[in-house]
Amino acid sequence: MNEIRFEHVWKMFEGNAVVSDLNLDIREGEFLVLVGPSGCGKTTSLRMLAGLERPSHGRIWMGDKDVTDVATGQRDISMVFQSYALYPNMNVYKNLAFGPKVRKEPRSTLQQRIHEVADMLGIRHLLDRSPAALSGGQRQRVALGRALIREPQVFLMDEPLSNLDAALRVQMRAELIRLHQRLESTTTVYVTHDQVEALTMGDRVAVLKDGVLLQVDAANDLYEYPGSVFVGEFIGSPKMNVVPGTLQIDGGQIVVECLGVRCDVSRELAGRLSATATNGPVLVGIRPHDLHLNGEAPSDGPAVQVLIDICEHTGTEIFATVELGDTKLIARLPRSPMPQAGQAVEVAFNKERLHLFDTTTRESLIERQAKREHISVGSPEAVLDAQSS
Amino acid sequence: MSDVHGMLMSADDVAEMTSDPVMPPANRETQRTKVRSATLHLVLGALGVIFLAPMLWLFLASIDKNASWGVEWPHFSLINFKHVLTGSLLHSLWNSVVLAVISTAIASITGVFAAYSLSRRRIPFKGPLLLFIIFSSGVPLAIMVIPVYEIFSRFGFLSILPTAVFLSVTSLPFEVYLMKNFIDAVPIDLEEAARMERASTFQVLRRVVIPLAMPGIAAASIFGFVNAWGSFIVPLILISPANQQPAPIAIYTFLTLPKAEFGNIAAYSLVFCVPVFILYAVSSRLFREGFVLGGGVKG
Lengths: 389, 299
Description:
The complex is a heterodimer.
Chain A: E1 4-13, E2 16-26, E3 31-35, H1 42-50, E4 57-62, E5 65-66, E6 77-80, H2 92-102, H3 110-121, H4 136-149, E7 154-158, H5 166-182, E8 187-192, H6 195-201, E9 204-209, E10 212-217, H7 219-224, H8 229-234, E11 241-250, E12 253-258, E13 261-264, H9 267-271, E14 280-286, E15 291-293, E16 300-313, E17 318-324, E18 327-333, E19 344-350, E20 355-358, H10 380-388
Chain B: H1 2-18, H2 31-62, H3 79-84, H4 87-120, H5 126-136, H6 142-155, H7 160-184, H8 188-196, H9 201-212, H10 214-229, H11 233-238, H12 247-256, H13 262-289
Helix pairs in contact in B: 2-13, 4-7, 4-10, 4-12, 5-7, 7-10, 8-9, 10-13, 12-13
């Protein structure tokens, strides 16, 4: 009953498509995160699901019911707003009691329910306070409590952690995950612009850009198999290095040339190369974690000499911006010997973890499963066959 | 080099921590600023006295049984108040209360709905409509009262209730505009949150919007009340029965008497001011509290 389906949903604002042809299935009990840069249509999508905006085209389904034209109050959903939207003229208790009161739910159990929810969120001692007398984290909890009181089928959260300080955000993140695990069958749709939040919280993550849904995947798959340059760069921190390169499918060998060096692609990666890949220019994605000091990793490709420009210390790691001519790359470097700006070092990339993208469509040229597995990388005919087909 | 610098810094820090902070000499006013300030106060004080004199007269004359037009030490008595709080004068005050309360109630209630719609709903030509509302709040009553008299006399409306309705209409544009600005300041998130809880528009208004826009609604209501309470020309022309005339007309009739009763005029004027004073006193708490939007939304 709690699954949600967006079916060819469009939202137009003054002739501009804010959401274009959104098709998305959200499973019952799932924690789905909508992530993307600001203006990508993630909040608009959420508001359409909430019933606060009406889709210009397409339908939205909850279970087997078309809710496109169902009023927001009738949808059995609760939403936590980015601003929390607590009623400042009511104390915490009245804020929690507001929904049940306007829905004329029986008063006999109301107090008990409020106390249960307040205990669950640790806000029992705050029930008499006004929202103005609460800290950010406490307000956040009250907003959550107000959504929980309803015991909805679907929980919507619109960047609920963006107004909290960093430490509290991490704490609330864990609490939200725990809460979602407790409410087994409740589906949660969560909007954020923070990819770390998306990866840590979501069962699946949907990446949007300019109103278009680019990819929906489990967090790890999204990181390992980015379907496009945008997803590759957006997911993962620091972002993926994308450099121009050339792909050569030459006989049995698949060779990638980038950063001025040639490198044989591993057998495993070659097997997953998309059928559309052809000889010629490609975009090569290398994650900072796959760019090491030469000799540090076992499967490194050829090394290149670079100049360290800036070092960013994160405590556990050092991310260095290194220069190779005009190209700037981010590499993860070890803490000792401590790298210094201006120093020349040799870095090598892990050739098993290259990402290849088409230069025009900017989509990935690497398949998730080895579709070419039956093809021997050593057999030139087979590769050429796959090329021509 | 950097180490040496670091050591010097830390030595400085220690010295600063151990010695007491030195306070520089106080900055005193110079002779010139003193003279300038004294002159200013003198001029402003004199201006203040000129404006206060009529008030002083009003108060002194009201408790003087032999009051005249001059400001003088009173022959203390409450006889003036006793005179004005009887008979038709008292009845005129009552008429004023009826006129002002009805007019305020009508303007405030319709005003809230109009202001809410203008603030939140998509209305065609909203911009020009708002401009029209602002301009119409500036139209002088005097140019409207004659045609309205024609209409009222044709329909037999020349009495207190239709006049109260007309007065509410005259204050409505300004009230709507004022209330709209306050409702604009209520975050839309709060309304959406309430709507998602299945609250009807009326519940949203009653439980969320009106409580939060209360300072503005109160300010608008007070404006409406004072507008109707002090109104002279409209009731003079539009109310024909003598026993429905409000207090401002009664004050005016004092002046038409062959012998001016200064004491009664002063006492009646003071009594006439009392409701407005009370209103301001009661609502000042509301204004001081101001907006209670704090803590509701963030970001």
